[in-house]
Protein: Argininosuccinate synthase
Amino acid sequence: MNKINKVVLAFSGGLDTSVILKWLQDVYQCEVVTFTADIGQGEEIEPARAKAQGFGIKEIYIEDLREEFVREYVFPMFRANTIYEGEYLLGTSIARPLIAKRQIEIAQETGADAVSHGATGKGNDQVRFELGYYALKPNIHVIAPWREWDLTSREKLLEYAKKHGIPIEMKQQTGSPYSMDANLLHISYEGRLLEDPAKEPEESMWRWTVAPEKAPDEPEYLDIEFERGDIVALNQERLSPAVVLAKLNQLGGKHGIGRLDLVENRYVGMKSRGCYETPGGTIMLRAHRAIESITLDREVAHLKDELMPRYAALIYSGYWWSPERKMLQTMIDESQLNVNGWVRVKLYKGNVVVVGRDSKTDSLFDPAVATFEDDRGAYNQADAAGFIKLNALRMRIAAQLRKSFKK
Amino acid sequence: MNKINKVVLAFSGGLDTSVILKWLQDVYQCEVVTFTADIGQGEEIEPARAKAQGFGIKEIYIEDLREEFVREYVFPMFRANTIYEGEYLLGTSIARPLIAKRQIEIAQETGADAVSHGATGKGNDQVRFELGYYALKPNIHVIAPWREWDLTSREKLLEYAKKHGIPIEMKQQTGSPYSMDANLLHISYEGRLLEDPAKEPEESMWRWTVAPEKAPDEPEYLDIEFERGDIVALNQERLSPAVVLAKLNQLGGKHGIGRLDLVENRYVGMKSRGCYETPGGTIMLRAHRAIESITLDREVAHLKDELMPRYAALIYSGYWWSPERKMLQTMIDESQLNVNGWVRVKLYKGNVVVVGRDSKTDSLFDPAVATFEDDRGAYNQADAAGFIKLNALRMRIAAQLRKSFKK
Amino acid sequence: MNKINKVVLAFSGGLDTSVILKWLQDVYQCEVVTFTADIGQGEEIEPARAKAQGFGIKEIYIEDLREEFVREYVFPMFRANTIYEGEYLLGTSIARPLIAKRQIEIAQETGADAVSHGATGKGNDQVRFELGYYALKPNIHVIAPWREWDLTSREKLLEYAKKHGIPIEMKQQTGSPYSMDANLLHISYEGRLLEDPAKEPEESMWRWTVAPEKAPDEPEYLDIEFERGDIVALNQERLSPAVVLAKLNQLGGKHGIGRLDLVENRYVGMKSRGCYETPGGTIMLRAHRAIESITLDREVAHLKDELMPRYAALIYSGYWWSPERKMLQTMIDESQLNVNGWVRVKLYKGNVVVVGRDSKTDSLFDPAVATFEDDRGAYNQADAAGFIKLNALRMRIAAQLRKSFKK
Amino acid sequence: MNKINKVVLAFSGGLDTSVILKWLQDVYQCEVVTFTADIGQGEEIEPARAKAQGFGIKEIYIEDLREEFVREYVFPMFRANTIYEGEYLLGTSIARPLIAKRQIEIAQETGADAVSHGATGKGNDQVRFELGYYALKPNIHVIAPWREWDLTSREKLLEYAKKHGIPIEMKQQTGSPYSMDANLLHISYEGRLLEDPAKEPEESMWRWTVAPEKAPDEPEYLDIEFERGDIVALNQERLSPAVVLAKLNQLGGKHGIGRLDLVENRYVGMKSRGCYETPGGTIMLRAHRAIESITLDREVAHLKDELMPRYAALIYSGYWWSPERKMLQTMIDESQLNVNGWVRVKLYKGNVVVVGRDSKTDSLFDPAVATFEDDRGAYNQADAAGFIKLNALRMRIAAQLRKSFKK
Structure:
């Protein structure tokens, strides 16, 4: 084991990372810097300060990263209409690169030679954290306690906590029925009761959204304004990125929007069942496609669609900081320069229905050409004959040949 | 103008194709063979016989193609989770190749040297019909009346009808407020009142689905069984393809599922607003993704996702009978050999919620590996360290270099 | 026929475009502006002035566009290692967008309402010219004489020339045995003697390169320096883009490099046989791949390779000015920021052999990691076990399942 | 360390695998089955029998796999025109899956519970072997001595050999100046003298090809016949796959064809310099593209080209036995049904020049359409106007909009 002097720990203040903190102090005999961030997980972060102090920590970083999270990570990802495996909006995946980046910056500032996180050895998050660490600081030492220690069960963890005087809350005695993760984009549930993908999750699991059955009987209309592919205003009120997303979460949650129950393919090789609530993201995706539908060139849109699954897999698998993701991002961002305008959606019991879209400056919908009525020469129907003839030519030549040889 | 002896007309029996029939007889002075097919459009086809006879037609083809349509066209397309531009389920696009194929077969049988259709010169359907014709019979003569004649407005069309004694129903006097197309997969609405994409369509337009607001307050559960990627049973009852789709349409329609309002990019170059009802297809797509989620290899699934937009564009643009579509189909079909099992969905006011999926024979979901509990060695967490290290290596080398050069 | 006031003609000064010039004056009764450009075709352009004056032309544009051509078109294309259908370096395709752009600019300057070119109705060039025109000036009127007039054979063309006093050179009496096109990137041959792809072209056809058999018996070494993916120096001498390419053509031609004989797929639908000499381009491509091999990240390189065929097809088919080509270019250019360094090639009787490559600032080749000797810990071989294990996991789970079911 | 009973070793009979054999016996105390295959590496395999017997081995497999290698691995790969990173013909990569498969089959036959190979922990071959093992037999135990033992230098290896009485040849004392690998497709060189990619390799390194400078001064013509994309005859003589490749190697080697010197990206993350001789493969690739040029549909060819880099990366990275490689292969094979005909190439001092190609049954080259002369109506040039107009439409609408807004 290398000698470590100082390690920056992603510290939530909860039981698991408290045990890790203590374990790092004990096993590595090194100084620990704690880093606690508000990325919209919905829990107070300030209490983490006292907890860290309780372990004798001197360098404590507590930061509100919500705006940066949405502006620099969530919004760029949504510019690509990103969905993993046709369903998943990548709520967990997109938060990890930011945490990793801040840990590395703090390591630079504090002269730490290592970083540590609380992700297990079976999941994607360890990959997302560590690929970020290595890409940003190639010689950083990474400590992944769950892959190293012998606290392989909850019982052993609790025992360790008790032994070292780490306070255990009542609910932690039994353990949550799910493994959860939350940030401004989503909350996720995995494991335990969800491990049989044939069984429907319990209604009581969901936390951010009401069931569609419990949602209001009245639909609600919402106007969403985009600039360069990002939402800048809701119902004509300009809002900052994080406020946009918080507001959409509130509206989506109220109307039962954004629940998802799926089996996904982890980067480490197994299938896993996850449930997600992404109320605001679900509205954003729908609205973004709608504004693109009138402002984006056809071939640009199709090229984006073809590259999207790969872009999604890169984010899912932890390659946010890779050169190929950045290269794709350059192209995606370029495509958004004209994505300006507004979309109207109707929210009702789980449904996000697009009911209108327009752009004063960038609509490529040309009513003069598109009309089913007389277009007064905007489009010459005779052109279609040549268009079809030449597009068919290669197939005609082939069919002629096959006929000759009676294939 | 080439001398035409006999033409096979895709004949619905409605006003437009009746005018075309008469116009072909007059202008081309040729024999007309009528072909009328039931592909689930929801109208009786038998009355077309009397109408054709009224024009003195001797060779009249009237056929029920519903099973062939779903088995050979709809199901293969759904194996790829096909969606055009992120939204559209290609209901119109997928029916055209079948019509084109039958017209060509009938031309062979009847010794006709031409085929004709009622699609306009501005839309995608002319392309879909004609690419099919040419691919299947390279020297066929194609007559597209809307691109040739001078009946460029509804008024002129009605006048022509009156002049030639073609009966005009009351509603045809004014014209439908929408241009519609229907088959077992969907019904579509375009034009007229929809030509401003900023405006919500009128509730009265929708014909196949109730509004989610009017759908039952009780959700309904449905078990869907797949074999090789196709649905073979609903609620444990084995059904033929067309019956499956009809049943899903009925259930989806009842629960307000499958409405869509979008602006799409036509192959002929302009943007166009369309509204669609695809109740059964919407359920199928969701369920198919769910069964694939447990039976398909990750990389196979991702490759399918990356190729899907192109496959969708091929179908949308009329290339069903092209060699590249067939080549992709071979690959897609190969991928479905293991897609066997069942999915349970919950239908409720516009929502299709997947609540369970399993496969006795082909589930790649391995609970022993996936579990959040002790997996007794099924997965060695230590492997992840090496996995991450080598995946990070190229990025670390690059970061090291950039550090040296202070980039 | 619309009334045209003034048309900008791409005018080479040769027989064909002279006939077109006269025909435009006669048939359209309009003013003609001639535009003659030196893009490295190897013929004097100044004589075109007198010829145009002979037709009474008042607005005559004669321009040397060689530097712009290489800097803004050839180099950007080579950044992507662009090859069409595995073989063709797109020499003709890449020159058309520049001509089209200048014609449109001149139309703006001179107030012309039309443009005209000398490409036939069967080839790709008409598409390349006209897509450029329309993309840059949507309402421009395009006159394509070969698609309009009745001069459908060489005899008729010569007759028209004689009748209108257009001087015909001796060789033009019989017509060239090939249709040729040249610019600084290549010279092409099509048609006539080449129309049987089973037959080898005559040695006398080739103009820019000696046969490898006639090339020097001594190889020649050449050092090529790149900055941001473009060549900036040869043998340590900094040169402008056009001078680089001219020098490479001279060297390649001397050593018998860059001949190509292929059957290609035209955008208008038929296969066509073409022969090309691209001596400098052949060297550039090889050297560019070599400098990328040490400076480009693996996944960036692979992504470029996957998108290249589409990028090539866009250029081949005339979509240089399309938004999708520009979007891809943004990504390609971004990838070249680190493509700095030098490559040494050996030229010998048709061969371009890369014999060395290095980059002081951007080499990702890390000898400490790559070495077959003891690497003193730069790479931990044990990491490979975990890497393989997790990459294999999904296949192991599948194999386990298949074993259980004896598939 | 798990208890191993019996291990199947890929045994060349050379020093390295002899040491491994002994080491397995000593360290694992298990029975060893040796497997030695002739895949065209150009060394006798029968002597391996005596060597194995010298170690007391009872189960000795010695097999000639040359035909299977070319028929089932090399040919299928060439159907895709497969090249890794624009240059490398994958000679080493394509042989590993066959070795892996036979080892697993032998493990089944002999009841072995483990397999072992002699690849190091830094290269791609370990991955290729082991992904194959795991995909074919998920619970096989893999022993990779180079990742496990402490014989980390040549000195230690020789010492171990001496200590255990393993005979060491003179040349092995000093070690080869290169790490080499050979099979019927290629011979490769890596390491040692090649570790500086700025330096040209010594002429003495190359073993299979003469230098172009030393090749005959007379070119040689060769007729190559294809059926379904595979070569079946040379100069009108039908030959088996392995004989085809051997003959092409002999011809290519004689004419100095197929040398390659490149820096490639290994799957394990670093760049590596390799030199390769692939004389027969270089001819095959060129000829295969030529036969496809007249028999393959344009869009099929383009789709193959777009997917090729990924297919190549799969093979390079060891995923031959993966479901995604098989899925792509299905599509590739399907595309080859019409790839029948012949190609004539001219071999001369490093050059493979295609000089003719034809197909009696499947040529899509239609001289009537392609001709530059009067085509008597086979192609209607007027069609091109409509073709261009509709392809330009979306760009015209966009340009019109930009003009309105003076963008």
Notes: The mean pLDDT of chain C is 95. Chain C touches chain B through 28 residues (CB under 8 Å).
